[in-house]
Protein: LysR family transcriptional regulator ArgP
Organism: Herbiconiux moechotypicola
Amino acid sequence: MEFDPHRLAALRAAVETGTLEAAARSLAITPSAVSQRIKALELQTGRVLVRRTRPVEATESGEVLLRLARQADALAREAMVALGAGAGATGDRSAPRLEPLPLAVNADSLATWLLAALRPLAGEIAFELVRADESRTAELLRQGSVMAAITTEPTAVQGCSSLLLGAMRYRPMASGEFVRRRFGADVPSAAALAVAPVVVFDRADTLQHRYLESRGVDPALPPNHHVPSSADFVDAIRLGFGWGLVPELQLRQHDELVDLDPGGAIDVPLHWQQWQLDTRPLARTAAAVAAAASAALRAPAALRSPVSSSATPG
């Protein structure tokens, strides 16, 4: 089945701009023409492709064609770069056009190792970094919103490839004053953990819950502080708001923090998933990310079980 590129462009514009009117302006056609092109796609596929709400939303079937539209656009840009040898629209080779590349990334990778990995490519690729919890970044890839994602999901999204990068290790940390006040000198007991305040990134963050469950503590018991920024999250722990699981990579700048449970680290495996497209920007980014991950993350062969603790509950 072949799809009219003008119809695909109308679908993409409607979803990305949020309204048929805005899509019409971006395509220099009328809103009626946008609607007709989307309707033609729906008749061709026999599926409802968009929910005509404000903003317009793609259905599950619509997401498939939305991804196709974006992939076709990426391939077209790649062809233009090859034909123009990277020249800008005016032919001025001193000002090459940066190729856009939307990536879904988790906050802790962004705050630690990822930006350094992408820096050498910043002169040729225009990165659009979409921050989301690592358990949810694959959904953005599935929707076609991004071309690649760092995710905890090992199974490749349809039309994508998946590579295990390694594991980010997290340790339960707190300020020295908080430890003395709440726990004393020993590994915290389950009873103490059940009432001690916890710093949590946001409501999608389940790392602290996993640690509490490993210690036999109901995660619903302790009070939570929600701090949705990697740097501010660590600052809240340093300032004594509560304890929390901090990426091992961030601890190099925070040697004043105290490890509550040296045997209680959690390893979170991270995967690189990307569209199965042969484009230079995507290939170069994937290689850079894989190389940086091999140096920064725990090696895949050394991954431990999701939770291991030297302490016994109680």
